[in-house]
Amino acid sequence: xxxxxxxxxxxxxxxxxxxxxxxxxxxxxxxxxxxxxxxxxxxxxxxxxxxxxxxxxxxxxxxxxxxxxxxxxxxxxxxxxxxxxxxxxxxxxxxxxxxxxxxxxxxxxxxxx
Length: 113
Fold this sequence. Notes:
Layout: E1 13-21, H1 26-41, E2 44-52, H2 56-62, E3 67-70, E4 83-85, H3 87-91, H4 95-110
Parallel strand pairs: 1-2, 1-3, 3-4
């Protein structure tokens, strides 16, 4: 008889984030790509939208986001979900801490499931 190895399927956890920078284009794009790749390595499927830092409050109120990543500071008005600095994903210094913070958000989201 053959011994067929079972193909192991990965179970991805899902998370939704808003990535913001001053104009919603340049650095948020770089950070979004770095986030997507890093989170896939952690078996986390991320739905990431980009936007302007000035619109973060309105955007998060109208969407279903778990966190905000900002390259333009973390003191955002009217945002009541975790705000994480995206600068480490641009510089490479401290990027592990960013992924730890996101993992904490994901763990809280999936706690008790």
